[in-house]
Specification:
about 300 residues; two-stranded antiparallel ribbon; disordered C terminus
Length: about 300
């Protein structure tokens, strides 16, 4: 028969388990409170405020008035909105794969086939990424100049004559800006692929070479699948960058001519700060947010758990 052990004199009785808050220590909820406050203050509240602004309209005649969903209906019925949506679609479908392809080829050539001047090549191809957007815009405006620009010289050698600047032609403006964006950001893709190539397992590569893989087959059948984490990261960053496109378009064309190179960033800027219609500007911002959320869900479905497992 067991007996209870009584505490001896001079010893404190055993203390039962009590929650941290009861023992005078802060609750674990206190540790997440700063992050929650920052989220509410800088993310949740601005989003809700912009959503509220999208329900109002401003005009010199009537002033500020509540219009409900009329701004959304007006946006969907506006030809410019669909032109902007087309430009954003072209921007993403062209820039993301081209940047990844060229960046991957440069990284593979530099890391696997270059020993001398490796640092020089890395620096030169990455230099446009850290160059000011204002400088990039100024240089490329001169390259696209109608009579003395380098681009026009090459086109004339190919038998193509364009009387106006490439960025001043409604047919070529968006593609000319896409070329500038690819030139500026391909070095970033190259850098991520260089980091991925540096982490490749030499044992796997040696085993592939023993099995007969070499040259182009080694690159496509072994290296490319092993670089899947870098490729997926660039895909995610490319979608984000496409939705955030603004400075290069604003500085080079301002969205013109005749909205031919308009993107969501420039359209929101014009509606809010030039035309003074903050309601329509907020409406376009909410639409961009919905598109971003939809693309995020698609990326989670396609890349979700496998993406996390590969990165781990």
């Amino acid at each position: 028969m067991s007996t209870l052990v009584q505490p001896t004199a001079g010893t404190a009785p055993a203390t039962r388990f009590r929650p941290a808050a009861v023992r005078g220590r802060p609750s674990h909820y206190a540790f997440v409170l700063p992050a929650v406050l920052l989220f509410v203050l800088f993310i949740a509240y601005p989003i809700l405020w912009v959503m509220g602004q999208s329900l109002y309209a401003e005009s010199p005649q009537t002033g500020r008035s509540f219009v409900g969903l009329a701004n959304y209906l007006a946006a969907f019925q506006d030809r410019t909105f669909w032109l902007v949506l087309r430009n954003m679609l072209l921007w993403g479908l062209i820039t993301i794969p081209v940047q990844m392809l060229i960046g991957g080829l440069l990284a593979y050539a530099i890391e696997r086939h270059t020993k001398r001047l490796r640092g020089f090549y890395r620096t030169m191809f990455f230099l446009p990424v850290v160059t000011s957007v204002s400088v990039v815009s100024l240089v490329w405006v001169q390259i696209y100049a109608p009579y003395y620009g380098i681009a026009q010289e090459y086109l004339r050698h190919l038998g193509i004559t364009i009387s106006s600047s490439l960025i001043g032609d409604s047919t070529f403006a968006i593609y000319a800006l896409i070329v500038v964006n690819i030139w500026q950001w391909t070095g970033f893709s190259m850098l991520l692929y260089i980091a991925g190539i540096a982490n490749l397992s030499e044992e796997v590569l040696d085993a592939a070479k023993i099995d007969g893989a070499a040259g182009w087959r080694l690159a496509t059948d072994v290296v490319v699948p092993m670089l899947a984490p870098a490729t997926k990261s660039l895909l995610l960053l490319g979608v984000i960058g496409t939705l955030q496109t603004f400075p290069i378009v604003h500085l080079m064309t301002g969205g013109g001519p005749n909205h031919a190179s308009e993107v969501f960033g420039t359209a929101i800027f014009k509606q809010s700060f030039i035309l003074g219609d903050t309601g329509m500007g907020a409406t376009l911002s909410v639409i961009v947010l919905v598109i971003a959320l939809a693309l995020t869900l698609v990326q989670i479905v396609l890349l979700g758990t496998r993406f996390a497992a590969v990165r781990a």
